[in-house]
Amino acid sequence: MSEARSLMLSKKASRRRRLASLAGQSLLFLVTSLSSVAVLFIFIFIAKDAIPFFELRGFREFFSSTQWYPSHRPPEFGALAIFFGSAIVTLGAALVAVPLGVLAAVCLSDVLPFNLRQIAKPVIEMLAAIPSVAYGFFALVVLAPLLQTRGGGALSLVLWAVGVPVSILLVIVLGEMAGERFPEKVRRPVTFLAMALLGVAALAGLLRAASFLNDLKIASGANALNASLILGIMALPTVVSVSEDALQAVGRDLRMASYALGATRAETLLRVIIPAAVSGIAAAVILGIMRAIGETMVVWMASGNAAQIPQPWFNFLEPIRTLTATIAGDMGEADQVTGSARYHVLFAMALCLLVFSFLCNVASEWIVARTRRRMA
Amino acid sequence: MAGTSTRKLLDASFTGFGIMSIVLMAASLLVILAPIFSKGISAYVFRATIEHRKAQLDLFEEGSEKRLHEELGRVAAARKPVYDMLSAFDAELASKPAAERRPYTAELKELKAELRALLGPIPGESKRMLIRDHYGQTRWDRALVEQHRVLFAEQYDYSDPTKPGIKIWVPRADRFKGTALEPLFPYVRDHLGDMLLPRWTFYRGFLTQSSRDAHFFGGIWPEVLGTFYLTIGAMLFAVPIGVISAIYLVEYARENALIRLLRSCISTLAGVPSIVFGLFGLAFFINAAHVSNSKSVLAGSLTLGLLILPTVIRSSEEALRAVPATYKQAALSLGASTWKSITSVILPAALPGILTGIVISMGRAAGETAPIIFTAAVSVGKPLSLLQTLTQPTPALPWNIYNLCTEHEAVDEIRHVQYGMVFTLVVLVLILNLSAIILRARLSKKLRT
After folding, report:
1. Which stretches of B251-341 are DSSP H helices?
2. Pairing of strands B199-202, B166-171
3. Residue A314, min C-alpha distance to chain B (Å)
4. Helix or strand holding residue A223 (H, E)
5. Do B224 and B398 meet the contact criterion of CB atoms below 8 Å apart?
6. Comparing C-alpha atoms, which of A225, A215, A213, A210 is closest to residue A318?
């Protein structure tokens, strides 16, 4: 009994120990809350320098005018074209990154054997690791001259590379589907006829589009297309890894059940697994978009930096200008006139970016949380 | 419902598209890295001319003086005919009347400028201000470009008024037909090797020397050192805070509203655009907190540290969670306190995983540009001492890559420096990531056994 007692702490010692542990824990908590303090400070300090701009110039001009002449007298601060530029390159990046990224994620999680996956993973990691300025350098020094001198040819080559397999597949599937509507006897000839007709139509369409692209003259290689392509490649790793996690999280049960019902792998994936993982994939797309819209160096170097809305608006071959590039590019000059509208307008832009990325974050978290609740 | 054959075809083509997308991804990686590697290496390994060796000896006292003198003698002999022809032509012009002299003056001036750019100052002329005017072409590839400019003059063809002028190259020899200068052009064409003595060189100084005359000479040491300081500074700030936060979140925190708020703050921080970090660094660290009077390595490091903090927290959290619960239970059952079990059992077990995350975020910090534009980076600067990092701005690889390929006065002439910088940065980052991959592979092997 007395031996057992000596193992236990005295009341005083136990209290001391509990106090120390409490103090230690609160210290750890304080350190952990530093990142929340940082977020708070970021919002406060960006807003603090952004508000004077709105006090000086109001909201209307900033959000509705396309006249961006900050160094004129009197200056004009219409940032609509710049907002549009950010939106259009982000849209372009999403058009590149989402289909490619989701397909690659599906392939990584369900199609490739383990060994090949081990090779593909480092490729994605390397794409994520390359610094943005290296991407920007590639866009400016390699891709832009290529687009300018041989842009049309390159574009039509891409069209052929993507268009031929897609249209062959479409022709065969549509032909078979058409044939199946007819009785057994005439099914084969009808199928062939449908395929032939569709094939000719597809070929004609491809030729037409390719010759249109081939004749395109690209005035400047630094344009929205260039920036979108590179941003899309940069957003790929995020889209791939987050959607792959979502696909993995669906679990084996659903897959096995679907295969047991006789579905092929494509049907299982398209009708069962992807719908089940769609919220995770949506979160992946949102994160990819955040990566694209917040990226600075690539758009600064490769988008042409012209504050204009292209005519027509979807013309990706025109130079554009984005929010991030404007902040990066104009700060050097605006820095000397701290306190002027010209300085504060850049903070107003940063505030818009900050609010947008915050909303995106909330949205993706909400989506993930909702799915988790539903799964449980 | 489609027929079986269609379904099989659809299945196969779905697989095909999936594999195509991965191949496309690998191909784009290759397409981006190939020019950076192939041309980047040429900043280190290239055919250096005698002018390179001369500049190295003059500016950095590198190389053997004796050998250079011997080579300079050979080169002078090979160049003598060129300069003889020039002075012969000068004499010829002086003897002619002014009316005949006039058409040649502009042409001669242009030719002399190109010759100066190719071979360095013409003997007997007064010395010029800029260092780049003291030497000819230091690289054989650039020398060939310059040789072309000596042999051919650039002209624009406006014969078709509907189109903008087309660039054409006209042989200069035609313009000096029948003069003492006519044989100069074939001589320059055939004897350039003797005049410049190109030799394959491994130029170690590209990494270890400072640049002279706006990167026309020397290397990128200040930029490399600046990147090093910024990265280490960011890690000094982010690693302790990040690891401690991860320990708290994994081992102590209970799931309640406060912790959920903390977690969403961390993911918000991860989503803040890098340029906004830069503005925040300017507005807070420099303008409000006055950590330094203007841009400094310290302010840049703090900003970068904030940027990578969420990455460090997340990867450390993952590593800590991967430690089997039995480890902790065993430690606790032996009577260790929670803190003791963390420091003596859990942390050592999670260390390789934490290190992996740290190394990857180091790569991120080294390559980020936007946050340091307003807080730390300058275009030109000397390598800093450790103490100066508290107050002085520094050149850094990412910023100087941008600066050199957009704002430099002679962008095309120093392409190799830009490629060399990008190559150095990418190799640095990839080495960091590669070591993370290897670290992780060894870790997973250890966990499996």
Report:
1. 257-271, 274-280, 297-322, 325-333, 338-341
2. unpaired
3. 25
4. none
5. no
6. A225
Chain B residues whose CB is inside 8 A of the A300 CB are 402
Domain assignment of residue A25, yes or no? no
CA distance A353 to chain B (A): 7
Is the overall model pTM greater than 0.80, yes or no? yes
Tens digits of residue pLDDT in A97-128: 999 999 999 999 988 888 888 888 889 989 99
The pLDDT, as a whole number, for residue A2 is 46
Q: What is the SS3 assignment for B374? A: coil
Angle of the B347-367 helix axis to the B397-406 helix axis, nearest 10: 20
pLDDT at B391: 87
Q: Do B276 and A46 touch (CB under 8 A)?
A: yes
A282 in a structural domain: yes
- Which residues from chain A sit within 8 angstroms of residue B429, using beta carbons? 129-131
Domain limits at A308? 60-146+223-375
- The CATH number of residue A100's host domain is 1.10.3720.10
Residue pair B383/B225 in contact (Cβ under 8 Å)? The answer is yes
CB B170 within 8 A of CB B155: yes
Number of domains in chain A: 1
Q: In whole angstroms, what is the distance from residue A324 CA to residue A8 CA?
A: 62
Average pLDDT, chain A: 87
Buried b (16+ CB within 10 A) or exposed e, A350-373: bbbbbebbbebbeebbebbeebee
Mean pLDDT of chain B: 89
Which of B279, B398, B422 minimises the CB distance to A347?
B279
Q: Do A45 and B288 touch (CB under 8 A)?
A: yes
B237 touches chain A (CB under 8 A): no
Quote the tokens at residue B145. Answer: 């470009």
Q: Which domains does chain B have, with CATH numbers?
A: 50-197 (no CATH), 221-448 (1.10.3720.10)
- B418 vs A contacts (CB less than 8 Å): 137, 141
- Residue B405 neighbours by CB under 8 Å, 6+ apart: A137, A140, A141, A301, B411, B418
Task: State whether B275 and A296 contact (CB < 8 Å).
Answer: yes
This complex has an ipTM of 0.92
Q: Give the C-alpha separation, A221 to B192, whole Å.
A: 36
Spatial distance between the Cα atoms of B354 and B356, rounded to a whole number of angstroms: 5
| pLDDT interval class at B96 (50, 70, 90) | confident
